[in-house]
Write a structure and sequence with these properties.
It comes from Attheya septentrionalis. The chain is mainly alpha-helical and 201 residues long. Helices cover 53% and strands 9% of the residues. The protein starts with a helix and ends in a 5-residue tail after the last helix. 34% of the residues are buried.
Amino acid sequence: MCAKCCSYPNGTALGITVGILATVSFLLSVFATYGCHYVDVDLRIQTPPISGWPDDDDIPWGENTVGFGLYTRESNYWTIDENVDSNYACRDWSERDRDFFFDGPWKAARAMAVISTIFGFAVMVCTFIMPCMRFPRFVLKIMALLLLLAGIFCFLSLVALASDICKDYDCVFSHSAGVAIAAGIMYFITGCVLYMMKEGK
């Protein structure tokens, strides 16, 4: 019974391969979307842009660089404890910060990143049921197309580098943006593998 359930009607080798690739691609896109180091912004020579900027804000104006992500940003823990490594301490953007920093390109990048993650998740779930379900050829092509689109949206999320954040401040490409590129490449590779799969028997 178990052998019949796990028979991979569309091919064992490619079925396992595409499942692993789809999972890795999805995880990379999630990290790129929700990591807080899409760009690193140098604020060492900057001052709060608005007089009366709240004192409880933890953006290190005039003190340090800070990681800005599409949906999170680095939290300034070094003002609390100099011994704390804050590289991976992320927090959500506050409404005030979103209103000030986010412009059209940044909002577009956020949307592109989420769309790529949704498409990647949908295909990943499909690969999980491949061992027990025969996928017609046209379904495999649709899945490959979704991954192609997911990869394109990953690359389009780099439009964040054209935002005012990078124009007004010293903005440096950071590791979440690099992961977005890696996710896009992985989506393309996974899509090619899916396209090569034969119809299940």
